Amino acid sequence: MQKISSHFTDRMDYLFRDIIASLGHLPAEQRGFLFGYEDEVDMEWVLGMAGYIIMEYIKYSYDYADPEYSLRHFRKKHDTDDERMLQSRIMKYVLKYKKREIDLSGQELPPGHKFVDVSMDGIDKKLKGHRLTEMNYFEHQNIHNLDIIKAIVENRISDSKKISNTRFQDIFSQYDDFVEDMIRKSKNSDFDMVFYSIAFFTFEWHYPVDLFYYISRIMEENDIDEVNQSDLNLLCGNVEIESMFTGWVSTQSRMIRERLCFAAGLFDKEAPSHVKEELRTLIKELIVLGVQYKETVYCDDGTMYKDWFRTESSLPDWASFFRYYDIFSIWEKKEWTPKRIQNMRKLFTATTLKKL
Fold first, then answer.
1. DSSP 3-state assignment of 161?
2. How many C-beta atoms lie closer than 10 Å to residue 46's C-beta?
3. Which residues pair with 252 in a beta bridge?
4. d(CA 52, CA 110)
């Protein structure tokens, strides 16, 4: 049997086919709404959702296996007073905004979670220190070092007095260089392919730079001044969805690759209102399906499907998947016009978290 993708390891091909088969066993009404019925199945959507589900499973599997270290581990050869002070400042800066993001999303963190108490008061805390994974550390360093991320979390990106148009272009150029560097490094090894693919997924999930750039071009090309804020939130925010098939779901919308296709339909100036409403319902049900597979789908032996996937796959399988499901494909080098800059500011104004 020919593999679904020539990039896949034998094991990833098997796992991908297993997800596709499981989608075929969804309740008939749900399956029909999402993908069409037996004689009219839209295989493009089936393959797309199978890919997204595996993307989430790989992230879960990677996070599960990624060990935590103290900050001292990351300083290594540069364990100087200056470096310790710098890392302390970065940690306080990042955790302040991470905690704010979590608080405003309405989530409740379990006792002892790293974002519940960011202080180092007390000898026990000081001895243990902050605990981070390699991915946490990479994200935190770049939240602090990338000017665009700092401008977003500090709510300066929308204000032309704080970020001039020239400065705006400079910080986006810095971000493009950062992504290009990740793309180059991702080709070095299986580990790098997985690490940098997940890293880019994480940045675009929290700070939807490339989604907004794509929408800003749609707005410019179609002479659109404003977009529906609830549609924007549906693509990249915290959502409460009443599913036709599973009831209420509260989650974060993070279909990073797929949402560019959604945006093209939602912000099509010529699309009839009933077509957009149908698309909104489809997007919601696809988001719910992702949650369903992460939280409520089990194997026959009672094992959660995501945990079965975690134990049945390995890093080479994940790397082969990312060579097929190219998460970097949504990125493009930015070219700016005054209108695009104005549109981007509007999009960030509509979605940036307000200061506490």
1. coil
2. 18
3. 238
4. 27
CA distance 325 to 321: 6
CB 252 within 8 A of CB 238: yes
d(CA 177, CA 68): 28
Report how far Cα 226 is from the mean position of its chain's Cα atoms: 24
Closest C-alpha among 76, 77, 105, 75 to residue 90: 75
Please report the DSSP string for 100-121 in residue order. Answer: HHHHHHT--PPTT-TTT-----
Task: Give helix 209-221 / helix 259-266 axis angle, nearest 10°.
Answer: 30
353 HSE (CA, 13 A, CB side): 22
Nearest of 195, 282, 200, 202 to residue 245 by alpha carbon: 282
- Please report the sign of the dihedral spanned by the C-alpha atoms of residue 89, residue 92, residue 96, residue 98: positive
pTM: 0.88
Residue bearing the bigger pLDDT, 202 or 42: 202
- Write down the H helix ranges in the chain: 10-23, 28-35, 43-65, 71-75, 81-105, 123-128, 134-145, 147-153, 165-186, 190-206, 209-221, 229-236, 259-266, 273-295, 305-312, 315-324, 338-351
- The pair phi, psi for residue 252, each rounded to 5°, is -110, 135
Pairing of strands 238-243, 247-252: antiparallel
CA geometry: angle 37, 34, 241, nearest 5 deg: 150
Side-chain half-sphere CA neighbours of 262 within 13 A: 28
Query: What span, in angstroms and rounded, lies between the C-alpha atoms of 164 and 174?
Result: 15
> pLDDT tens-digit profile of 141-196?
888 889 999 898 888 998 889 999 999 999 999 999 999 999 999 999 999 999 99
